[in-house]
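S.,

As promised, the glycine run. Input:
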Amino acid sequence: MDVLVVGGGGREHALVWALDRSPSVDKIYCAPGNAGIAQTAECWDITPGDLHGLARAADEHAVDLVVVGPEAPLTSGIAAVLDQVGIACFGPSAAAAILEGSKGFAKSFMERHDIPTAAFRVFHDLTPAVEFARGPDWGFPTVVKADGLAAGKGVIMCDTADEAEQAVRLCMEDGAFGAAGSTVVIEQCLSGAEATVMALTDGERLIVLPPSQDHKQAYEGDQGPNTGGMGAFAPADDVLDADLLEQITERVLRPTIDGMAAEDRRFQGVLYAGLMLTDDGPSVLEFNCRFGDPEAEVVLPLIESDIGELLAAIADGTAPDAVTISDRHAAIVVLAAEGYPAKYRHGDTIEGLAAAAALDDVVVFHAGTGQDGDRIVTTGGRVLGVSGTGDDREAALAAAYRAVGEISFDGMHYRRDIGHRNQEQE
Ligand code: AMP
Ligand code: GLY
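Predicted complex:
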């Protein structure tokens, strides 16, 4: 089987890496890919937003399966465009991807199906939104969210009425998140440990993958601005044990899949639940309609089954009942460019990649890299995801940090405390 992976970050490198290990997969293409992906896959210079360009190229190359990394092509309907040329798509239809594409939809859906989530209100107009934000039923802090896709930036925590009003105005009046902010969700602020549970589903069967935790803040001790994720590990079995995972499966994942099917929005692909583990039980912070990044980089390496075969079966509606999961642990440390997550520098030469990759239990996933002659240079804010595996979390982290020690580029920064959050809180 020949497979096209859509996207060009660390998550897509992990998908390409996993597909490359799959006996069922022959040729791998990636659009647009990056310098690391290009070592394994043939990369095409087509952006993930060019749905018809992707479908045309996939058709010309007789691709059997397209695996979609990022959310935007899914919410724009890439599955239907591929269906027109008879190519299977791993990733939900636009009708199902709305679970990520509209937070308002997701919240109302959860209310309809009795899925635990923070109390909320949805507003389409400025005046009532401001009025509510200044005095929410549940008091402060409160959370203001842009309804649509905002690259992880459309969530604003507010401690006071003035902050909440400002946040609503930022979304609805200033258009800081474009059309994504013309509708806002105002919700109760929850507290607890955060964890991610991803499940593969063909719309009916559910394969729950090991839970993971990512580290969203830029600096150590969970300080500083939010990022796309500075590191992650799996399994996060200390905060989320087998009993709790069972509870999440029954109270969140199962009713979501069944509810989407009942609403004629059959969800096929990977359902990502971002959860807050509160004293009153798990509560859904968000759904995503694709693999998390960097969560994919720590969960995919734990799947021992043939990933190509698995993703094709999900796309085809014939998912197996279970997959083989390794009992090892995985961790990833993201190396970021100077300035990230704000304006960052790029074009710096990356040294030490070969030495890092030569270490045992290490894979270096490229996120924002490009080839410049014979140099590999930085092109993105998150440059590399250095991953390690081991018999326990400490061993996985040790492998990852050993490899980090081999790599350098001007302005490189990373967190030295990945994987240590729960211990610190105890
Ligand atoms: P989201 O994109 O909705 O997952 O939000 C991004 C981040 O904001 C989450 O990972 C949480 O850290 C935080 N967050 C979102 N909603 C809430 C909430 N209701 N209470 C507390 N924190 C939240
Ligand atoms: N790591 C969070 C996400 O992929 O949305």
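The longest strand covers residues 269-278. Residues 139 and 188 are 8 Å apart (CA to CA).

- D.
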